[in-house]
Amino acid sequence: MSSQPLFPYVDDYDQMRRVMVSNLKSLGFTNIITSQNGADAINKLKANPVNIILSDWNMPQMTGLELLEWVRKDNNHQFTPFIMITAEIERTQVERAIASGVNDFVLKPFSVGTLSERIKRTLQRSTVKQAQPAVKAPPSEETPAASPAPPAAAATNKALTVLVVDDVPDNLTLIANLLQKEYRVKVAPNGQRAIKICQSQDKPNLVLLDVMMPDMDGFDVIKMLKADEVTSDIPVIFLTALDDPDNIVKGLESGAVDYVTKPINPTVLQARVRNFLRFYRGYEELKNTLDTMMDNARLRDDVEHIVRHDMKSPLAAIIGTIGCVGKGENISTEQVKTIEDLSYTLLNMVNLSTDLYKIETGRFELNAKPVDLTRLIDRVVEEIRLGFTSKNIKITTKYQGGEDLTALGDELLCYSMLHNLIKNAAEAAPTGSAVFVTVSPEGENIMVAVKNLGLVPESIRDRFFDKFVTIGKKGGTGLGTYSARMIAEAQNGSISMQSSEESGTIIEVTLPKAPVVRR
Fold it and tell me: I need a labelling partner for 333 at 20 to 30 A (CA). Which of 159, 198, 254, 347 fits?
């Protein structure tokens, strides 16, 4: 992917196209083509390979959704990231767009900072998952999407903060007294102080900004706020004694959402602030709903990818064994039993996707039972060993302590975790070397250590178990080690990794030891 993505932006409103081009150029993107509707966009897409598509939703001739559906069916663009830009949206529309393969939404009105964040996030995800569409259909009724938490019943406007900026102390006192019964109020006597407050962690939800101030007037302040990604989303209402149309237009064009003329009419000011913050709260809730729906769709996609990855080895073992029959070789009772076990494993792994999704969304409830790690690891090693004969990798197991090495957990989750870790170790091990799997008691736990002589690059060691972290592995997604961490922690265990020239790479998993059953 080039460092300067080619953007087609599709919108039937000419002024909006101009604004968007200006915004994209301010972010450093220069390769931009525009279209006035979906049909025109298709003609241009056929002639231009692009990195990302931005499109308005409501357009004549062909809507943004219809354009999205065409893009996902087109062989040349079906995996191209697609961001939908819209001012009016309903849950059913969001679900349809997600099902059609949208990557993200941007709600109008939006700031340059919001646009930048959404584009960066979408491009980063498409880099990691460029081999498949970014999202799947929304979660089914069986595993419903987690709804965003509603605002607490006791929540009031006191949760919202208003910053008042004016160089006249009496004005600060007057406005603060008018608003402090409903909102948290902060005050700043000049533009420099206002900018520092806006850049803090506890930044305001709304700024009431005087225009006429010494050193730095209101126009200078809003220019600096809108140029900084940290503060560009903060809405500003101008307080001005300049009631001529040119100054009002200048204020609105600089990014203000409204203005109130001086001398202040208390009723008008309170109504303007109250109406805007009511809109702001609804707008934030809508954004949170969209983000939650998108995140849930992505979670389902990630989980499905993990399960598809894990299913390959059992399938390969089944196919290999059946191949022997096709060649006229005799098949033993043990091999038949292996095929049966692997078939049940595949069936259970379909169910595993539901458990992984619940773990990610915090809704998983562990039904812990004794898991014989000795038997389980022997089975995993036998499945994996066949796939690495050409690489001449030897996988050895060592069971220490002379005790019953039975963990307390979920057998299917343990299988998925250990299969991922041992297979990854075999993939990372140098040709002709070995993978060592050691199981031993560790106090109230059981430890499984998986060692190979390969090295994890230093650049990702601290993030080894994070989502999407991978480097140098063809087709790697970084989901295998991430799922291993999820599974270990979901079973009240832990996981860690060490990598050095002296010892190679060692991954250690601890799981609770099952209680001894006395007879």
Answer: 347
